[in-house]
Amino acid sequence: MERLLLKPRTLEHVKIFWEKSQDQEIERMFPFNKGTLNDAIKLYEETLKPDAKSFGKVINIDNKYIGDVWCYGIDEAAEKQAFVSIIIFDKTYWGKGIGKDALKQFSKLVFERYAVSRLCAFTYKDNKRSIATLESAGFKKLEEFKENGIISCYYELLEL
Fold it and tell me: In what residue span(s) does the N-acetyltransferase domain sit (predicted)?
């Protein structure tokens, strides 16, 4: 049985994640910001500030770093929501339910840490694994839309 732990992100994780996320298959499947390594480092540094509007953890299996889960656009005042993303860049761990377990753990942590009542997520309609992960973690699809020629889905998870 593999042991899943969500651990704090470090600068070294940011560098590894940026490198691993340059993979064409990952870029095609996940709607995330593409930028330079310096851009990624600046975003990470923003998460370290006391008033940060983003927060993340790394996904470790048996002490091996395999991906990230994070929230961004944290709004504790007006909308009471945050957006969540998860990427497992180590493809040997795809399709094993690890994303679902990591997302469930992380969602619980976000609801405990921030005054938000819902988590929001986007994924491409063609990304069946991402959809299965979101739905198995309790997210509900609320909308489909087309952006830049790609059909995407919008999901929400309400705090219980």
Answer: 15-160
Question: Crossing angle for the helix pair 98-113 and 128-136, nearest 10 degrees?
Answer: 50
CATH superfamily assigned to domain 4-115: Gcn5-related N-acetyltransferase (GNAT) (3.40.630.30)
Q: How far apart are CA 100 and CA 33, in angstroms?
A: 22
CA angle 133–135–140, rounded 5-degree value: 140
13-32 pLDDT, tens per residue? 999 999 998 888 887 777 66
Q: Please, what sign has the CA dihedral across residues 51, 52, 53, 55?
A: negative
What is the distance of C-alpha 118 from the center of its chain? 15
Model confidence pLDDT, tens digit, residues 125-143: 999 999 999 999 999 999 9
Picking from 53, 159, 55, the residue whose alpha carbon sits closest to that of residue 108 is 159
